[in-house]
Amino acid sequence: MSARPRVLILRAPGTNCDVETAFAFERAGGQAERWHIRRLLEAPHRLAEFQVLCIPGGFSYGDDVAAGRIFANQLRRHLADALRQFKAADKLILGICNGFQVLIKSGLLLDDDPGLGPQATLTWNDSGRYEDRWVRLRVRGSKCVFLRGIESMLLPVAHAEGKFVPRDGVALEALARQEQLVLTYRPLRDDDGQEAGTPYPDNPNGSVADVAGVCDKTGRVLGLMPHPERHIDPLQHPQWTRGKARDPGDGLQVFRNAVEYFS
């Protein structure tokens, strides 16, 4: 393994956050490469050359059928063996926004019971429209590799299908018990430790239990709707001119944690 972990940023037609995501990993000390999905489909074995796989945000395949569905089907049908080996090798997978949609619909992130279906999905925002705003987030527990050492973050969201909906109450309870509900929305101007029930627009999509991100059972696969790559520099903070920005931006630690996992 090289001194700088290799990161594969996997894009598809319609992906539009791959450049800034690669830049964030580079800033964190990684060695990022951007590949079109067809390049990996031609040589699935090459996934083993990388330590981190990231599926960035955007509108893969124009969000046709449903957000992330076509990209997810490509992973499930053509790259299942390579991805299974990648996960088994103690490596990391990150899905941001559309990447979260891809991970959850491909079965890479949550369990998919043949009789009951997936534990959860992502669907249309309660507002019925695209939401583009800054949100405050709370990290739950220490299970997720990408979120270690982080308590809260201020990040932007930009999506139309970001509402987290569990299959049923049993599935939600199981995810909570296994500490997989690792990131939740919290009131933007409220620091009183409120546990749940964050109203719109602070919960911008109406996610059940205010869920903004989930990890798999190992803590090495993370999907989240907010964009950490869009807040790695203090100048990206919406109130940086008022002295409220931190240096570095809140999102950079997500990428640093991934790189430091292999140090």
Determine the strand fraction and express it as a percent band: 15-25%
Helix/strand/pairing category: alpha/beta
Report how far the terminal alpha carbons are from each other. Answer: 10 Å
Poorly predicted regions: none
- Give the biggest beta sheet: 9 strands, mixed
Order of helices and strands: EHEHEHHEHEEEEEEHEEEH
Globally, the shape reads globular
Summarize the amount of helix as a percent range: 10-25%
How many H/I helical runs?
7
Number of E-type strands: 13
The rounded Rg comes to 17 Å
Mean pLDDT: 95
Spatial order of the strands forming the largest sheet: 2-1-3-4-13-12-11-8-9
Quick rundown:
The chain has 263 residues and is an alpha/beta fold. The chain has seven helices and 13 strands.
What features would you describe in this structure?
With 263 residues, the chain is of the alpha/beta class. The protein is built from seven helices and 13 strands. The chain has helices at residues 18-27, 37-42, 69-78, 80-88, 98-106, 169-177, 252-260; strands at 6-11, 31-36, 52-55, 92-96, 112-113, 117-118, 120-123, 131-139, 152-159, 163-166, 183-186, 211-215, 221-224. A hairpin with a 5-residue loop joins strand 12 and strand 13. The chain is globular. The N and C termini lie close together (10 Å).
